[in-house]
């Protein structure tokens, strides 16, 4: 009898000891998961509430100021007439001049060239341009950028004809997809079409 009583005292409830280890292990895993959740959700949202000053990185290329002068105006009415007559191309020649000698026109390879003709529209003549995207109203001092056009190297682009374009697009669906820069392009396109 003495042996049975000493065994019971030394036993220390062995079946409950593994259960205690499982509870402690579950608590540690839960604590680690809560810490990870806190790190992912709460610490990222704290950066929205703190104001931090972000310095711009130094420029990779040294900036230079380039001033583009607008083209000189014509001195007489005869000069204006000769400029306008030289820029007028009949419709038959437009389709031929658009295609290069090899039958293709790469619109992406070319240069910006001075264009003495007046711009198709200005910020004051088009009401579709929003105030926050109006360069002139927001303080742009020069207007020389209005007197340039894109000239592909392999062909000559005709001046955009809004009426012809609208006739070609009649009864067709359009979709304009993009961000705020694309929206600005759409606004500019609407200004060209409305002139």
From TrEMBL:
Localization terms from the record:
Membrane
GO terms assigned for molecular function: O-acetyltransferase activity
Topology in the lipid bilayer is annotated as: Single-pass membrane protein
Keyword Zinc-finger present in the record's keywords: the answer is no
- Keyword Membrane tagged: yes
Instruction: Tell me the ranges covered by the Trichome birefringence-like C-terminal domain, including all copies.
Output: 157-194
GO CC annotation: Golgi apparatus; membrane
The UniProt keyword set, sorted, is: Membrane, Signal-anchor, Transmembrane, Transmembrane helix
Give the principal location in a single coarse category. membrane
Q: Which residues form the Trichome birefringence-like N-terminal domain?
A: 104-156
**Transmembrane residue ranges:** 23-42
Indicate the family of this protein. Belongs to the PC-esterase family. TBL subfamily.
What is the protein name given in its UniProt record?
A: Trichome birefringence-like N-terminal domain-containing protein
Organism this protein belongs to: Gossypium trilobum
């Amino acid at each position: 009898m003495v042996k049975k009583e000493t065994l019971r005292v030394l036993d220390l409830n062995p079946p409950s000891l593994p259960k205690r280890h499982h509870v402690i292990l579950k608590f540690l895993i839960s604590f680690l998961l809560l810490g990870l959740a806190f790190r992912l959700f709460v610490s990222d949202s704290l950066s929205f509430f703190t104001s931090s000053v972000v310095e711009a990185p130094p420029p990779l290329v040294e900036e230079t100021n380039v001033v583009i002068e607008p083209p000189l105006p014509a001195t007489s009415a005869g000069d204006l007439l000769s400029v306008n007559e030289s820029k007028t191309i009949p419709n038959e020649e437009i389709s031929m001049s658009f295609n290069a000698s090899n039958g293709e026109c790469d619109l992406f390879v070319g240069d910006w060239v001075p264009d003495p003709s007046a711009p198709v529209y200005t910020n004051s003549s088009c009401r579709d341009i929003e105030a926050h995207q109006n360069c002139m109203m927001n303080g742009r001092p020069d207007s020389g950028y209005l007197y340039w056009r894109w000239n592909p190297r392999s062909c000559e682009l005709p001046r955009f004809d809004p009426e012809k374009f609208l006739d070609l697009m009649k009864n067709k669906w359009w979709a304009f997809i993009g961000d705020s820069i694309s929206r600005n392009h759409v606004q500019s396109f609407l200004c060209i079409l409305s002139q």
